[in-house]
Each structure stands twice: as structure tokens, then as C-alpha cells.
Amino acid sequence: MVGLKEELLKSIWHAFTALDLDRSGKVSKSQLKARRGARGARGAGVLSHNLCTVLNVPHDPVALEEHFRDDDEGPVSNQGYMPYLNKFILEKVQGNFDKVEFNRMCWTLCAKKNLSKSPLQISDEDAFKVWVIFNFLSEDKYPLIIVPEEIEYLLKKITEAMGAGWQQERFDHYKIALNTSREGLSAWELIDLIGSGQFSKGMDRQTVSMAINEVFNELILDVLKQGYMLKKGHKRKNWTERWFVLKPNIISYYVSEDLKDKKGDIILDGNCCVEALPDKDGKKCLFLIKCLDKSFEISASDKKKKQEWIQAIQTTVSLLRAGSPPPHKEARQKRKELRQKLLAEQEELERQMKELQTANENKQKELETVRKQLEAAAARAAEEEKKRLQTQVELQDRFSLELEREKMVRQKMEEQVAQKSSELEQYLQRVRELEEMYKQLQEALEVEKQARQDEETVRKLQARLLEEESAKRAELEKWHLQQQQTIQMTEAEKQELENQRMIKEQALQVAMQQLEQLELERKEALEQYEEVKKKLETAANNTKTWKDKVAHHEGLIRLIEPGSKNPHLITNWGPAAFTEAELEERQKSWKGKKATSE
């Protein structure tokens, strides 16, 4: 009943729209200003009455009034006509009505308004049949249209019925022009297309009319086959020519092909069968149709017709057994399913394309983020390299300043040592003189006493000199410790900078691997990476050069300590106050630092 309801709604939709109402039962704003309710209600009432008459449904005018009772505008109100149509008319349809008469009633209401005024090469009756076929083949959505695939199917059927060849190339050009402007044709555009003779050139009106009628019989009236044959009577056993019409569940036979005088029906079901009979009683091309209650002997005009009828009846019985619809309806359903499948595949493809586009955009955003991160990392690395170089320069300046200070201190110490040496020589000379005087004045007690006092004075002076020498030695040791602490702090800062550089190199390598995995074709990112890598290599070379310079300057540093009583060693810098043990310790320390820097 759902399929029947859809077929009825299509024809009613044409009639309903001819009342200048839209699908919800509302008039346009301009019409609503001109007329309110009364005229629309009158048209809807006439349509409802005619529908109830042709559909054999009892008409209830009170129900129409009750449906729109709360609104004086009636069918043009917000409640609409379609809910009333579904509830009070279509749900009561049982199927016991004449489809042709129903369609003709709807055609009468809408044809005058919509049919083209230009002359057509088909009659009004043929236009009506094309309109009914349109309702059968159109899509189940409003406003109704017939898609190019169904137009091609219909034109092929009409062309085959006319016995002409199908012009595929011409239709392809027409289809291309149609697809560029719209999805399909309306019923009236389809009538104009067939009536224009664009695909039936060279055919007269009668041939085209017969072809349309044949397609109408097949698609709308479910006529699977028809033609004249002889039938043997059951009582008189005489042979009479009848016009047979085969439908999905019945074979009707008439006096003539005008179908006015029906003589009987052969009810078909899954238990029926058909078989060929040998020629007898002067009749040829015989076959028998067996049903549960009766059997029918029929004679075809020739063997070809006989075989066609047997094949058609057997196919019909097979469809009844399988519960399948007629071939043309099944083919239409398959075409719709195929279109729906293609549409679903197209929508799925569009969805996948959107997802791919979204994923691509996300990848592009990720790559842009990575690129920005790399740029930021490169900028940070450059900034840190700049700071490191600045720190190097500052340290180098500091080391140079310390070296200058140390040279000045060393110079002062050497001057002091020279002064002390001179004083010591003078002291020794005085001692010798005093000793000589002691020998000369040994006998004199006063002179000896004075000499002893002088000697005590000299001893005090020597003690003071020794104390000063110890203080100077302690001060030099303090300078030595400060110098060692400075060197250790420099080594720690250098190691920290080296660790930071290694961490940044590892981070850059990880970023490079991620970048290669995400987008191999990102040449700009690779070039930037190469530039960063070159900068890092340059920084590493500068760092190595700086290390060499530091090691070189470190070798130039020499601590100055007070001299000892042991013999002094001579180095490449001149006289040094190092003992052999201290010199060995310093050589071991320098060798260890040199191995670490390499």
C-alpha cells in the first residue's frame, strides 16, 4: 500500500499544485492578498470530492470542515491540505478503482494550466499517457522531476516500439546540455521533449502514438503481452478469435483490441502451467494453459507467436511463484537502487575527500607548527650561540686582564726579591764587618757587648725579614688558589655549555626525523635544517678553536711563589720558584686537562 500511496500522491500533487496552493496548503503572498481562504477551500473541496469518487472512497465533507474548523482560511491555513488528504482519503483506498480514470481526473485539473500552448506532434491523449508514465518513472521527491537515466529509458522504449534505431550520440549531447542546467525535467518539459519530435524524426504521428500507447500499456497497465489468437470454447468446442491481454496475474480476452467487450479472464497463480500441444483438428501452433479449475486451448498465428506467448506466460507464472513484481517495475526499482547506491557512494566519496582534505589541512598545520618550532629553535640556538660567544669574549677579556694583573704582581714581586737580595748582601757584608770588628775588639767587653747587641738586632731584623717572606709566600699561595678556582669555574662553564650544545643537537636531530616523516617534500624545512646544521658546525668549530685558545692561554699561566732555599729550576720563561715535585705535579695536571679537552 505504500507504493500505491506514492503513485497516487504524484498525480494528486499535480492536481493540487494547479489550485495555486503549495504542498502545505498555503497560497503565495501575492495570491493571499487577492483572495483569502474561500476560493482555496472551494478548490480543495472539489478536488477532495473528485478523489473520493474515482478512488471509491466515501466522501465526508464534514471531516474537511472539522479539519480546518479553527481557522477561517480553510485549506490555505497552517494546518494544510496534505495532512487531511493522507488521513481522510488515502488511508481508506483499497485498490478497487480504475487507475486510468483516476489519472485522467488529475490530468484534467492540471493540464489546461501547465500544458504548453505551442503545437506538439502528439495528441492530447498521448500527452496524457506521457504524463502518467512520468509519474511512474519520476523520483519520489517534490517537486517531481524525471532524471536523465529514466528519460533515456523511456525514449529507448518509445524508439523500440516505433521500430527505429536508437540515437545514443544525440541523446548524449542532450544529456550533457541538461546536466549543466538542472537535475532533470518536469512532466510538462518531458511532454514538450517527446512532442517536439527531436527523437522521433521521420516518424508520422500515428506511429509515435502507437509507440506511446504500447509503452503506456506495459508500464502503467502492466500489459506484458497482447495480440489476437484463437480460443477453443468449453461448451460448443468451436474456435473463436479473441484479443488476449497478458498481465502479471491474469489473462483477459476481448472481442477486439478496443477492449470494449470483455469475454472472460484466465486467472494465473503459482499452480498454473503452460505446455505446447501437437497440431490437431486442422489447427496449428497449439498450446494449453492449465489452471486449478479449467484448462484453455489456444492457437497462435505462427510458431514464433506461439513460442513468445508460452515464454511470456511461463515467465509470469514464475514471477507469481517467487512473489516478484512485474519485470518493468522490478527494473525500475533496480535502477532507483542503483542510483541511490551511486549517490551514496558519491556522498561517501565526498565525505572521504572532505576527511582527506581536513587531514591534509591538519598535516599542513602540524608541519607549519613544526616549521615554526624549528625556526624558534634555530632562533634560540642562534641567540644562545651569540650569548656563548659573548661569554667567551668576556672570559677571554677577563683572562687577559688577570694575566696582565699577574704580570704586574710578578714584576712587583721580582722587584721586591731583587731589593731583598740587595738588602741581604748588604746585611752579609755588615755581618762580615761586624765579625771582623768582633775579632779585633774581642778583648774589649764593652765592644763585645755592643757587638752582641748588634747581633741581636740583626737577628731580629732577619726574623722580621723571614716573617715578611712567609707572609709574601702565603699571599702568593692565596693568589695561586684563586687562580685554580677561576680555572675550575671556567672548565665547569665550558662543560655546561658543551652539554647544552649536545642537548640542542639531539633536539634538532629529533625534530629533523619528525619533519622527514611528516613531509619529505618540504624542501624549505630541509634547507632551514641544513642552515641550522651549518651554523651548529660553525659554532662547534668556533668552540673547538676557543678551547684551543683557552688551553694555549692556560699553558701561559705561571704561578709565582716565593723562592725556597733549594736550588732554583730554569724554565722557558726564566728562573722559576718551583721545586722538582711541584713541577711534576703541574705537568701531570696540564697533561690531564689537555687529554680532557681533546
Question: What can you see in these coordinates?
Answer:
This protein has 598 residues and is an alpha+beta fold. It is 66% helix and 8% strand. It is built from 16 helices and 9 strands. The radius of gyration is 59 Å and the shape is rod-shaped. It is found in: Cell membrane; Cell projection, Lamellipodium; Cytoplasm; Nucleus.
Would you kindly provide a brief summary of this structure?
Residues 222-318 form the PH domain. Its main location: membrane. The protein has helices at 2-17, 29-34, 38-54, 61-67, 82-88, 99-114, 124-137, 148-162, 168-179, 187-195, 205-219, 303-322, 327-440, 445-518, 523-556, 580-597; strands at 225-232, 239-247, 250-254, 262-267, 273-277, 286-290, 295-299, 569-571, 574-576.
Explain the layout of strands and helices:
Layout: H1 2-17, H2 29-34, H3 38-54, H4 61-67, H5 82-88, H6 99-114, H7 124-137, H8 148-162, H9 168-179, H10 187-195, H11 205-219, E1 225-232, E2 239-247, E3 250-254, E4 262-267, E5 273-277, E6 286-290, E7 295-299, H12 303-322, H13 327-440, H14 445-518, H15 523-556, E8 569-571, E9 574-576, H16 580-597
Antiparallel strand pairs: 1-2, 1-7, 2-3, 3-4, 5-6, 6-7, 8-9
Helix pairs in contact: 1-6, 7-10, 7-11, 8-11, 13-14, 13-15, 14-15, 15-16
Subunit structure: The SWAP complex consists of NPM1, NCL, PARP1 and SWAP70.
Coiled coil: 328-549
GO molecular function, one term: DNA binding
Q: Which structural class matches the secondary elements?
A: alpha+beta
The total count of strands amounts to 9
Distance between termini? 95 Å
Helix segment tally: 16
How much strand content do the residues show? 5-15%
Give average pLDDT, whole number: 81
- Could you tell me the radius of gyration in angstroms? 59 Å
Main location: membrane
InterPro entries: EF-hand_SWAP70_N, PH-like_dom_sf, PH_domain, PH_SWAP70
Subunit structure: The SWAP complex consists of NPM1, NCL, PARP1 and SWAP70.
GO molecular function: DNA binding
